[in-house]
Amino acid sequence: MQMFPEQMAKTLIVEAFQSRRLVVGMFVLVNAAMLVVGLLFPKGFSASTSILIDDRNIVQPLMQGAAVPTEVTDRGRNAREVIFGRKIMDQILEHGGWMANRPTAEQQERLIEDIRKRTTIVTIGRNIIKIEYRDDDAERVFRTTQKMAELFMQESIAAKAAESSAAFDFIDKQTQDYHDKLARTEEQLRELRSANLDARAGSEAEVTARMNDLQRRIESTSQELREAEIRGMALERQVTGEVEVNAAATREGQYRARIGELQSRLDTLRLSYHDTHPDIVQLKNQIQDLTEGIEAERGRREQTKRTGRLEADQSTLNNPIYQQLRRDLSQNQLNVEALKARIADSQQRLQQELSRGKLLHTGDARLAELTRDYQVNRDIYQDLLRRRESARVSMHLDRDRQGFTFKIQEPATLPLYPSGLRFWHFMVGGILLGLLIPVGLLYARLQIDPRIRLANSISSQHKVPIAAVVPHMWTPRQLKGLRIELAMLMLAVVATVALSAAVSVLRMTKVI
Amino acid sequence: MSKIEKALNRAREERGTLLVPVPNTGAARTPGTGTAMVAETGHPETIARMAVSESRLLSPGDLWQRGIIHHQHAGDPAVQVFRELRTKVVQQSQGRNGVILVTAVSQGSGTSFVAQNLGAAFAFDAGKTALVIDCNLKNPSMHRLLANASLPGLTDYLENPDFDIAHIIHPVGIARYRVIPAGRRGEVPAEHFTSVKMRRLVDSVRLRYRERFIILDGPPMSDIADIRILSELSDYVLIVARYGRATNTQIESCINAISDKKLLGIVFNDEPRIPRLH
User: Fold this and answer.
1) In what side-by-side order are the strands of the sheet with B129-134?
2) How far apart are CA B205 and CA A332, in angstroms?
């Protein structure tokens, strides 16, 4: 049923009046129930302490990147795990005096379970953990809470130090391993180098260059050789073809030139002298000798031609061109021999280079492998070295309690008054609930009950006028009954409240 | 309370409890009293006759105890409401008397209470009389007003051809107020209301005294057949819906069953009221 607030309030009052017995009954019942609950509710003390976890201290920005602070994601859960762990719980049992009666293992387990139930660990904000413990003994509450915080801090710090120390040890071991590996690779590399001196970076290129050089040299020398051979052949031809002729012509020519010379002298003398003149006679003899000499020369030449033997001839030896040619020829011969020797040498060296190149190839592959290993190992090793230093700093941070500190933000205090719900809470709660529950139920009934309680809703719903709204007519007898009833109900309410108050007072004065 | 009624009351008190014919003079004749006075002025002798037969009147306290309004309790909201309701009917009837059927959305809505008190409100007026006929044959209640509950009533009249109307109209101790109880209870066929005799009864009581307003205390709407017949016989219909009982669906079906012309409206009954106890 849709109502305006004031209509609703009015209707609620009227309905409460209508169902007055039910309302009062409920009030009395609720109060009685709360009274019982309040009496049965254990009196408890509670103490709490909060721990500030400071992981953002001054060292951190300084060590940015160098040290990795241990990250804690869910501190509350973490704390619960740590505190509720058997290790701390055993100490708590000892400290809280539960072990005085020498409980069995089973009883201990139950005691621990009880302590866990009474302990609340919550995270406030990001960095504060609040540990709250409830118990019926104020002194024990205080001691237990204090101990819990203390043990938690100890445990956390120890765990963290152990963690970073373990990390350092691991990285250190890795670094050592890589160091060994690197040393081994270096040794292998050294051995390879000493076994294979040529095996150097770039050796192959050198060999190739040398081989190319040798090849080129062989080619050019061969060319030179060919040229020299051709020249030799030409010289040969010149020597064989032209030497003799030239030599012969030269001796006969000399003779003839001498004859001509002598003839002209003779002619000159004949102009002045008679043939019998001694000079003329001498000249004639000389010419005669020369002619004979020519004849003799001719004959010897013919003979030479026939026998093929070259006779050393004074006149021939003295031929300069021949000499020159002979010299050239022999020079050429020498040259050819030298070139041939050079080619042979070059070819031998080429062969050597080839075999050396082959050797180089196998050495190179091994070298490359070792070098690669070496480089990889060296990189990792260097990286690990850096990391080890970071880990060392982290470890030192934790050891010196710089990375992640715990501070007791609010220490546990000895509770002087019982905490939690006190008896008067139940009393007041009973009165409030005793009022609210019936009103709430009435309200709920108004909300879901389709029956009409407002005359206006009829006219608005059905477009039919309301002829009259007849109020309830209280007859004198009814009024009398109502008076008695209301008095009784009032009495019940007052009695209930008075009883609650009385019990509350008795409770406060510790009578019950 | 109107000036006229005050004057009448004063006159009545002056004369004591003994009711004598209202003289055709005095305060009641104040000019400009409207339609209500027309009927009264026309038939003073009938009222006087009724007054003679009302030998013993119930005191206001007795009436109140029975849940019937009395003009002496004019301060009570219920009295005000019924008087207003009466005025509405009178305005609607335009000077003539009328037959008003009071029915209910459901059983227990307080139809009889409304019918009785509407009658009582008519009877406040010295110029009007009221006759309440108990038509709720299955669940009659008007006999409770009578000293002798076994007095003949409606069914006796309808079943016996020899019965005279005068025998079933009984005074109940309220001035100008008569009742026809339901009568002997037995097998009740619905055809009672369809009979010619029923119509004749209604017509005769209406025509006999023109200042008389007839109120039919009808059965609830669940007896839809009876209601249709009774609404045929009546001029106006009032539907009683009780606080915290009737639902919109029920009201809707009731409205649909009654002709719009006759439907005077809904009486929202028994709205809770926290009384002043001092």
Assistant:
1) A466-471, B263-271, B236-242, B99-104, B212-220, B129-134, B177-180, B170-171
2) 179
3-state secondary structure of B264: strand
If phi > 0 it is left, if psi is from -120 to 50 it is alpha, else beta; for residue A227 that is alpha
| Average pLDDT for A324-333 | 85
Chain B residue whose CA is closest to A459: B266
How many beta carbons lie within 10 A of that of residue A49, not counting itself? Answer: 22
pTM: 0.54
Report yes or no: B252 at the A interface, CB cutoff 8 Å.
Answer: yes
CB B253 within 8 A of CB B221: yes
Q: Which residues contact B124 (CB under 8 A, 6 or more apart)?
A: B5, B71, B83, B86
Count of other CB atoms within 10 angstroms of residue A348: 11
Length of chain A: 512
- Structure token pair of residue B203: 């017509």
Chain A interface residues (partner B, CB cutoff 8 A): 13-15, 17-18, 449-453, 455, 457-459, 461-462, 464-477, 479, 482-483, 486
Question: CB A61: neighbour CB atoms within 10 A?
Answer: 8
- The Cα–Cα gap between B209 and B139 comes to 28
Q: Across the beta sheet with A405-410, what order do the strands follow?
A: A119-124, A128-135, A45-54, A405-410
Domain contains B278: no
Q: Which residue in B273, B268, B108, B278 sits closest to A18, CA to CA?
A: B273
Which residues span the domain enclosing B117?
3-269
Is the pLDDT confidence value at A248 over 60? no
- Going by pLDDT thresholds of 50, 70 and 90, the confidence category of residue B21 is very low
Window from A244-248, A507-511, B123-127 with minimum mean pLDDT: A244-248
For residues B232 and B98, is the Cβ–Cβ distance under 8 A? no
Q: What is d(CA A184, CA B209) in angstroms, rounded to the nearest whole number? A: 138
Cα distances (Å, whole numbers) of residue B210 to B4, B10, B177, B201: 20, 26, 14, 14
Domain count, chain B: 1
Contact A357, A208 (CB under 8 A): yes
The CATH code of the domain that includes B41 is: 3.40.50.300
Q: Is residue B70 part of a domain?
A: yes
User: What whole-number distance in Å separates Cα of residue A184 and Cα of residue A202?
Assistant: 24
- Tell me which chain A residues have a C-beta less than 8 angstroms from the C-beta of B263: 464
Strands B99-104 and A405-410, by their bridges, are unpaired
Q: How far apart are CA B102 and CA B234, in angstroms?
A: 10
Task: Report yes or no on B274 lying in a domain.
Answer: no
Q: Is residue A416 a contact partner of residue A63, using CB atoms and an 8 Å limit?
A: no
CB contact at 8 A, B205 and B214: yes
- Domain annotation covers residue B263: yes
What is this model's ipTM? 0.80
DSSP secondary-structure letter at A70? P
* Strand partners of residue B237: B101, B263
> How far is residue B261's CA from residue A368's CA, in Å, rounded to a whole number?
116
A74 Cβ contact list (under 8 Å, min separation 6) = A123
For residue A1, the chain B residues in CB contact (below 8 A) are none
